[in-house]
Design brief:
This protein has helices at residues 3-17, 19-32, 67-72, 82-90, 146-160, 175-184; strands at 37-45, 61-64, 94-100, 103-111, 115-116, 121-124, 129-137, 165-171, 187-197, 200-205, 215-218. The protein has 229 residues and is α+β, with helices and mostly antiparallel strands. It folds into 2 domains: 1-34, no CATH class; 35-218, Gcn5-related N-acetyltransferase (GNAT) (Aminopeptidase), CATH 3.40.630. The strands form 2 sheets. Strands 2-3-4-7-8-1-9-10 form an 8-stranded mixed beta sheet, with helices on one face. The chain has a 3-stranded antiparallel beta sheet with strand order 5-6-11, with no helix packed on it. α1 packs antiparallel against α2. The protein is globular, with a radius of gyration of 18 Å.
Length: 229
């Protein structure tokens, strides 16, 4: 990123999200010139905190997709491969989807077990919570808050099964996503600091993560499904 582009990016962040957000992003980018570094905000959502309006699918059909429906849409159009779908289903993960007739409009994947978030790292969390990952909305349906609606309806379904709620993370400088999930009802409980030193991941979780078993560990000795980047 050249200087003029970087300055434009800072100004755009300040206008859209405030001076504090722009300064935070600038610090993140400066550190990343020295060593790859991220701050991941851990967060949960429980049914009582979710905007009730997001629990109405309107004209869309909502529910967990069957294996047949999943494989029929495991294409580049939906940023999903048959191999990914096979691995996710094999470990018990489920896909909650919104349909416009027979057309897949939006979906997200859900797991209550340790889940790989990159080639080298596995996210751990209390299995009483459900981890949401790989959310996707077809370009023709974006702008309708379908991602939030799908998560809210999936949360309702899992809550009826006795799960405590959804757990997830967002990078601290992904301000658009932070604004969206906070509007939905997610609450931040702690942070994971992630750096790569000499190519190896180094992580540290703040005390707030302890109650949720929320941490990152090396994937070297585990055979868990690849999920979201």
């Amino acid at each position: 990123m050249n200087l003029s582009h970087a300055l434009r990016h800072v100004v755009d962040n300040a206008r859209s999200f405030g001076a504090h957000a722009a300064l935070h992003d600038l610090r993140q980018r400066a550190v990343n010139h020295v060593v790859p570094f991220q701050i991941l905000h851990g967060m949960t959502a429980i049914l009582a905190d979710v905007n009730p309006r997001l629990r109405r699918a309107g004209a869309y059909r909502a529910g967990f997709a069957s294996p047949g429906e999943i494989f029929a849409h495991a294409t580049s159009t939906y940023d999903m491969t048959p191999e990914f779908a096979q691995e996710a289903l094999a470990v018990g993960d489920r896909c909650f989807a919104l349909w416009d007739g027979e057309r897949l409009a939006s979906f997200g994947w859900y797991s209550n077990q340790p889940t790989r978030i990159s080639d080298g790292l596995v996210l751990h969390f209390d299995p009483e919570w459900v981890y949401m990952y790989k959310g996707f909305t077809h370009p023709e349906y974006r702008g309708q808050r379908l991602h939030g609606i799908g998560m809210s309806l999936a949360l309702a379904a899992y809550s009826e099964c006795g799960m405590r709620g959804l757990i997830s993370y967002v990078k601290s400088n992904n301000f658009q996503s932070l604004r969206s999930i906070e509007r939905m009802g997610y609450r931040i409980f702690g942070d994971i600091y992630l750096a790569r030193v000499l190519g190896r991941p180094v992580t540290w979780a703040t005390p707030g993560c302890r109650d949720y078993g929320f941490r990152l560990e090396s994937a070297a000795a585990r055979n868990t499904v690849a999920t979201r980047s």
